[in-house]
Amino acid sequence: MRFVAITAIFLALIAAGMVFINHSTDQSIAARIQILGIWRSTQDSKFTREFKNDGKVIDAYEGSSLNSDGRWVIFTKQMPIDALPEALEDGAVYLSIAAPESEAQYFKIASINSHELQLVYLDRGGIISFTKIQ
Question: Domain 2-132: which CATH class?
Answer without folding.
Answer: mainly beta
